[in-house]
Amino acid sequence: MKELLYLKDDQLKDLIEKLFVSYRETFSDSKKILDRYSIGLAHHKVIHLLSMYEGISISELLKRLKVTKQSLNRVLKDLIALEIVIFKKDDQDTRVKHVFLNDKGKKIFNEIFNLQKKRIYNALLNSSSEEVINFDNVLSKIING
Question: For the purposes of burial, counting CB atoms within 10 Å of the CB of 96, is it exposed (0-12), middle (13-18) or buried (19 or more)?
């Protein structure tokens, strides 16, 4: 562990490249499915979040994606046209809309997830419990700054 205190720029660049490549490979697995439905990575991000946070509000979706209203609106319009999402008004405040995947949206998510799951599952399966826990902890620290 002592060597981690002295990470050099080249070592950090290598780690950043590995993060980039792992992201690219994990999401390229789903490219054929996305293409089949004529949707892209932005659509996939929304579908993924809708699967995680069923009934998420538009404002919370914006916060989680860190995109503009205009960008999210474009993606949601596409998903509506493809009949992948549905909206429900909030019971207490009708100005608030909640977004849900419909059955078609859930099917698309599951197709993508099952492909991505194979890559992640194999990596985790070939790692020790300690490696998995440490990896998760490091990812959380990267995410949380």
Answer: middle
DSSP conformation class of 4: G
Q: Per residue in 9-63, pLDDT tens?
A: 888 898 899 999 998 888 888 898 999 999 999 999 999 999 999 999 999 999 9
Q: Residue 49 in contact with residue 56, Cβ under 8 Å?
A: yes
Residue 54: C-alpha distances to residues 11, 46, 80, 95 (Å): 39, 11, 16, 18
Q: Which two tokens stand for residue 8?
A: 């050099």
Contact 105, 84 (CB under 8 A): yes
Who contacts 136 (Cβ-Cβ below 8 Å, separation ≥6)? none
Give pLDDT tens digits for 64-118. Answer: 999 999 999 999 999 999 999 999 999 999 999 999 999 999 999 999 999 999 9
Task: List alpha helices for the chain, DSSP H.
Answer: 9-28, 31-36, 41-52, 58-65, 69-81, 103-125, 129-143
Apex 77 CA angle, 65 and 28, nearest 5: 55
